Amino acid sequence: MPRQQNAHADALASLAASLALSAGVVEKILVDSHDLYCPRFTFEDHQKPTGDCQVKEALETSTGSELRDWRFPYIDYALYDILPDDPKEEVAIRRKAPKFYYNATTRTLYQRSHDGILLRCLSQKEAQEVLKEAHDDMCGAHQLGLKLGDRLRRLGYYWLKMIPDAITYAKRCHACQIHGDFIHQAPGYLCSTTLTWPFEM
User: Fold this and answer.
1) How far apart are the first and last CA of the chain?
2) How many domains does the chain have?
3) For the segment 61-105, what is each residue's pLDDT rounded down to a tens digit?
4) For 61, phi and psi rounded to 5 degrees?
5) Among residues 52, 42, 51, 33, which one has the least CA distance to residue 72?
6) Is residue 38 located within the same domain as residue 94?
7) How far is CA 156 from CA 76, 98, 167, in A?
């Protein structure tokens, strides 16, 4: 460990010596070293250093560091057999865990669909971006909620509340409210039809 610290200090000193800054100019240099996978490491306290593990990014995603992601309990269980303290959540994770697959190389959680296809699990922020792209961006067709959720599944994405989020997003789309299906039939009273004679040919 001291040899590694000396190597970091030498690298920092040589970097500082190579910078030619004028007097009074301040330059910030970020030096960070960490091991992501530490034994018995939970992602809840991913900002606490544990021994040699100066962990500043646990499960690096494009969304940044979220304090509590729905994927973390499944990753904890897949890597270290760690279960949450809540008994109901523990039972739910034990029941759902066989459907999930964690790829340690890419640090990505997948969900196995009924067809055996791996669906990439998204965080809440990634899910909002994917909903926007699939519904009303360049590739969007302003589909209804259930069809939008099915389309996202066919595109290979998954998160826990995918169908309710898709329905809510489609209902809040302003363009869908303006250009939705209009009823062109004039309003009128409902009239009951007269019953024919039984067994009439």
Assistant:
1) 96
2) 2
3) 434 444 578 999 999 998 888 888 899 999 999 999 999 999 989
4) -125, 170
5) 42
6) yes
7) 23, 18, 18
Per-residue tokens: 61 = 């995603």
Task: Give the C-alpha distances (Å, rounded to integers) separating 191 from 186, 187, 188, 194.
Answer: 14, 12, 9, 9
Token pair recorded at residue 10: 């030498």
How many Å apart are CA 125 and CA 63, to the nearest integer?
6
39 and 82: one domain?
yes
Yes or no: say if 100 and 109 are a contact pair by the CB < 8 Å rule.
Answer: yes
Domain annotation covers residue 133: yes
Round the CA-based radius of gyration of the chain to a whole number and report it: 27
Matching residue, tokens 């409210």: 177
Q: In terms of residue numbers, what domain contains 41?
A: 28-100
Digit-coded pLDDT (tens) for 121-163: 999 999 999 999 999 887 778 888 899 999 999 999 999 999 9
Are 55 and 91 contained in the same domain?
yes
* C-alpha–C-alpha distance, residues 119 and 121, integer Å: 6
